[in-house]
Amino acid sequence: MLLSLNLRNFVIVDKLALEFASGLSVFTGETGAGKSIVIDALGLLLGDRADAGMVRHGTDKAELAVEFDISRLPAAQAWLAEAELTGDDAEVVNLRRTLDIQGKSKAFINGTAATLAQLKNLGEMLVDIHGQHAHQLLLRPETQRAVFDAFAGASDVAATVAGHWRGWQRAEEEFAAASRNAAAFEAERERLQWQINEVSELALGDSEWEELQGEHRRLQHAASLIDGVQSALGTLSDDDENCQGWLGSATRRLQELAGYDEQLNPSLDLLAGVEAQLSEAVSELRRYADHLELDPQRLEEVEARLDAIWRTARKYRIEPPDRLPQALQDWTTQLESLGGGEGMVRLEKAVAIARAAYEKTAAQLSALRQKHAAPFAKAVTAQMKPLALADSAFTVALTTVAAGGHGLEDVDFQIAHGEADARPMGKIVSGGELSRISLAIQVITSGLSGVPTLVFDEVDVGIGGRVAEIVGRMLADLGKAHQVLCITHLPQVAACGQQHFQVSKDKSNGGIVSHVAALDDAGRVEEIARMLGGVEITETTRRHAAELLGHV
């Protein structure tokens, strides 16, 4: 239930703080006073788009805040918990929104930044707004279908049908495209398979290219390596005059001299290390030389292997050649995505599966619509009779059509006056009649809704007199199960409210300012008298107003 609404610098509101009660609350005021500002503010707080023009002239920022009691809305509490947006009190939710003159907007749920999508998702559980032009929208086929499906409890099934329809059409398009390009598909599969076969036969290992290049360098320069190693061994150890001999002679001479001066010992220690490393280097070179040999046959084999790899890589424009294994993997993936040789079969099967899913859910939707068409028509007709439409009957015509995103039938709301045949509403009813029929439908569908707060923005347009009083009583009855907010220009409807707000405007230094005040009993008499008698309020109109309030 809506608990409070606070506005600052919004449109023509300077500052506004309202608290709401259960039952029917009515808003009245002169034309242009800003009666719809409260509903516009609620819309913004529940996720509607904002623009800079909503910031009051002469100010930099508008601020809006609203508080709801959700103690009887476990679904809303669960949604907040899942989104990690629960406040200090799990049974209350606070929504806030700011707008600036640059058109930037920020939204908050329980003090945490939120997206407009989150506001909308939560708002759909909290408030149901019936705008001024709801009766005009009722002439649209999509509105009629949505309203009826909601009554039939078929909205979720209808959404599923729409999803299956889109899936079916996508599958059909893919199959049609594949059929048109079957030759190209087959050529692409053959090309990929040829490349895969050729590279697979090459059997290139992940690190083989690099290893082959290293081996090729060794084999190609084997003679130079042999000569160089042998020359080094001669210099270090094998020649008559060699490093090991020189080092040994120097060491022995210094050892003799160290007997005369111990300060030579550190140098001897270093030379001992050098001698050991030189000896190890000589041993390592001998081992290397033992395995080093000229191998023209192996060199020829390596060069042939390198050439085969290089030619294959160049053929498919792959550089460097060691990327061939990755290319093979990529081609294999592409071939699998085309379904190999079973591509068309796979796509055709996908079409059949998507069509079966659509037909199953569409049949379920048709059954729900057939089941609830008569009960819905009966309920609306019953609500229409006290609205000066006693001789009229409401029907729901379900016409079978080709499969589509909305199911297997069109939904058409029709009216029959007297003994005449039923005809589509847009062709037979007047504006006033349409407004009353819309109200009857809204009362029925709102009564089924689990949303706790219902808002009606001048849904009583085009009616008056006794019918207006009946409309007021209908809204008051609806207020027994829901919290109802209604903007009205009819005194008969206003008199039915349990809470009455008067909207007015005046001029200030900053321009036009709108005010909203909760009326007491005396204030209600004055306001309803104004609505009855216009600018000149007499004692007679006051008595009529008091009588009207007393009859409720």
From TrEMBL:
Residues 168-202 form a coiled coil. Transmembrane segments: none annotated. It comes from the Bacteria. Pfam families: SMC_N (PF02463). Keywords: ATP-binding, Coiled coil, DNA damage, DNA repair, Nucleotide-binding. Residues 5-506 form the RecF/RecN/SMC N-terminal domain. May be involved in recombinational repair of damaged DNA. NCBIfam families: PRK10869.1, recN. Belongs to the RecN family. This is DNA repair protein RecN. It comes from Silvimonas iriomotensis. The lineage of its organism: Bacteria, Pseudomonadati, Pseudomonadota, Betaproteobacteria, Neisseriales.
